[in-house]
Amino acid sequence: MLEALELDRAALAKIDAQVRILKIVAQISPLPDSITELIATGEAAQQRLDSYKYPVLTLPNEIVAEIFLHFLPPYPDVDVFGKSTPTRLTHICRQWRDVALSTPALWRAIRPCRARAMFSLGWDEVFSLTTAFLERSGSLPLSVHASDAYKPSPFVPSIILHRDRWEHITFCLEAPTLSNALDGPMPLLRTMWLRPQGGSSRQPIAVPSDNVPLLRSVTLDDRGARIVRLPWSQLTSLKLSDHVSLTPCVSILRQTTCLTNLALCLSDTWYDGDDPRDTYPDLILPHLENLAFEPRSDMHQGFFQSLVAPALLWLELPEMFFGVSRSDRIQVGLLNSFILKSGCKLDGIRITEASFPEIYRDALPSVPQVISLARVSRPLTVPLRIVR
């Protein structure tokens, strides 16, 4: 059929060209009788083309909807205002538009500011687009990225109205806006990534456990770690990123007794009189299985020695943590001391930015896998991915 379709298209193009030539000639002399026959032949070819139905359009709508879902990044990842936006699916044909608009799962991941940045949209257009996504998603749980880092964004109040459907949130909002957004029940919320913006106010943003009964995974920057108050004891995954200072880090870890996954990126500076080179009372994390520790120097060795993780399976550290300048100065004994104190049986250790990879395998014979990476790799945060 495809071959016949191409032949009809070629014949129709040839006939159209001939008819155009004959009509030009007709301005000089009468049209030949053959033009009527030529037009009839063209109309017959066009009817055959019009009657052709592409195989993809014969698929049941349920199958088409499933294909559309695979066109998007896996939920809850968000790129729906970029190249993989469901709005592109509404521009192909009427049937696909109807299928897309009647499939709420296509519209449940929302990132308004990406739309504005990629397509140079005005705030009114972003507001309309956000409202459309919220409406089309029906009653499904939502994954929302929202930011008002540059100015108050008009779409934030619309998003807050759907607080009861939030499942995964990433908010980079002014502290008062963030406080308002989190002030209410979020019964479906499982993961949050918070970066409070603006000013130097330390007014706490408190979220009681009754408001977030399903919350298990949290990512905070330094300011978030200082002012956000969460039900720490129910978390299983925590990432303190962007050079969090030691004071809030220690305070939080004393309360996160159920953690199984932890990623720490600590600051080289300190506040409130705490010196990161001091020693600390033991921080016991009884259920911790994966630890990615990213200090930017060796000054946090005292803090590291205070950690006790008897269930730890995987550990990642940068080589600079050991104060390395030559291979004979690598303090691998610090690792052996940590393992002995915790009483853990590690499955593996990853050393990033390693200049002397051969040292670690020999120095850690009790660890089955010792991986040395010359560059900073993707951090050992794979276990920190969202638990579905």
Topology:
Layout (H helix, E strand, L loop, with lengths): L1 H24 L8 H18 L9 H11 L14 H4 L4 H8 L7 E2 L1 H8 L3 H14 L5 E6 L8 H5 L5 E7 L2 H7 L9 E4 L10 E2 L10 E4 L1 H6 E2 L7 E8 L1 H8 L7 E6 L16 E2 L5 E5 L6 H6 E2 L5 E5 L14 H10 L5 E5 L4 H7 L5 E4 L16
Helix pairs in contact: 1-2, 6-7
Protein name: F-box domain-containing protein
- Treating each run of at least 4 consecutive H or I residues as one helix, how many helices? 14
Largest sheet: spatial strand order: 1-2-3-4-6-8-9-11-13-14-15
Sheet with the most strands, sense and barrel status: 11 strands, parallel
Give the CATH topology of the largest domain.
Leucine-rich repeat, LRR (right-handed beta-alpha superhelix)
Are there runs of 5+ residues with pLDDT below 50, and where?
A: 378-388
Shape estimate:
elongated
CATH class of the largest domain: Alpha Beta
CATH architecture heading of the largest domain: Alpha-Beta Horseshoe
Radius of gyration over C-alpha positions, nearest whole angstrom = 30 Å
Beta content: 15-25%
Number of strands: 15
Between the first and last Cα atoms, what is the distance in angstroms? 46 Å
What is the average of the pLDDT values? 79
The amount of helix comes to 25-40%
What is the H/E order? HHHHHEHHEHEHEEEHEEHEEEHEEHEHE
Number of domains: 3
